[in-house]
Amino acid sequence: MTAEAGGRRPSRTTADPARLAAYDVLRAVRTEDAYANLVLPQVLAKHRLSGRDAAFATELASGTLRRQGTYDAVVDACLDRGRVQGRIRDVLRLGTHQLLSMRVGTHAAVSATVDLARTRTGPRSAGLVNAVLRKVAAHDLATWVARVAPDATADPVGHAAVAHSHPRWVVEELALALGPRRDELERLLVADNASPSVVLVARPGRAEVAELPGEPTVLSPYGVVLPGGDPGSVPAVAEGRAGVQDEGSQLVALALAAAPVDGEDGRWLDLCAGPGGKAALLAALAAQAGSSLVAAERQPHRAALVARALAGADGVTGILTADGTTPAWRPGTFDRVLVDAPCSGLGALRRRPESRWRRQPGDVEDLVPLQRSLLASALDSVRRGGVVLYATCSPVVAETVGVLEAVLAERPDARLEPVPLDLPDAEGPLPGTVQLWPHRHATDAMFLGLVRRV
């Protein structure tokens, strides 16, 4: 093993494989901008982990990333002077998570993390890691939050940011999105830090819900909650007849398929199809309706993922590598169009724990013009009487209400209509729109708005 650039060659002291795997995930996220959910299976395979060891490594890595903001405040309070960064910071975060949020005994957590430090950062760091973690172990999480977070009365947003490990600006955006139900903010932040269930979808006409293991989902008729294990070991998933898909994402495809259209209904379009999960469900629904789907994706590598997701599916007439803002088809070609717009992803923080630390307020400002352009292009692509479903996995007002209102103000040929889903407690910020929430619906915070071209 080679040392990280600029660091010393690690000691030959061996840490246990599960903690090594969790560290490797954190390092990949920090140095390579990797996504934890994508790199984790590779790391588990590299360390030959399965069963309880794989579950421990998964919770250790994902939980540490979710609570990173809180743990950094605790670690900083335990340092005698200065700050530590890089590899040692990763090790201290992992040790702090074990001490404050996992059922790991103090001695085991400290000694195993010291071994990890010797292995990954060299023997000279072991004393510092040992000293800091023994200070961390002196209090539980609630006591530490009371010590390091701003006063909840004087600065409620700052307190929530540290207590629930979200950047301050994200807390502000989520509070704004909740609107008159801002009192639910703490429940939402808590839900963002909970490990999400793995949800499977049976693609209609290709798989039956009954052949998937688990309990049926509450909101989607095609979903089940997997009780545990590797989704890839489920035969229908391995064969591409079913897939892993959050219930909120399933509802996006169902909403577009259920919307009434005037006249013919044979041509459907997924304008931003990568990586292909919604397109696969849409294709199955289109085939059942006697219609066909075209899936478009601008980025070639994501278009390849779409092709893989749609392999063997009926009802697909084209998979295009194309920019949705400059359509490669004639205006008015389609009867139904889905715009699952690129967004900040702040509604999917349960599944992408590192996203909250990567995103910046300027990212939203940069995305909004693209979102408006895609929605306008979708309205050009749909015929009169057809429908466009605009969806984001973000509840941020600028990406939802702001985009819809701006485009509708410029399009006298477009009209907002109710999303055809009967969902409990899911009223969106505009009449007829839908806003799902992790703390209310156990889904990602998907936003759905239906627009008809008139």
UniProtKB/TrEMBL annotation:
Record-annotated active site: C393 (nucleophile)
Domain SAM-dependent MTase RsmB/NOP-type span(s) in chain numbering: 174-454
Binding-site list for S-adenosyl-L-methionine: C272, A273, G274, P275, G276, G277, K278, E297, D323, D340
Keyword terms, alphabetized: Methyltransferase, RNA-binding, S-adenosyl-L-methionine, Transferase
One Pfam family from the record: NusB
GO MF annotation terms: RNA binding; RNA methyltransferase activity
Database matches in InterPro entries: MeTrfase_RsmB-F_NOP2_cat, MeTrfase_RsmB-F_NOP2_dom, NusB-like_sf, NusB_RsmB_TIM44, RCMT, RsmB/NOL1/NOP2-like_CS, SAM-dependent_MTases_sf
GO biological process: regulation of DNA-templated transcription; RNA methylation
Protein family membership: Belongs to the class I-like SAM-binding methyltransferase superfamily. RsmB/NOP family.
Function comment: May act as RNA methyltransferase.
Protein known as: rRNA cytosine-C5-methyltransferase
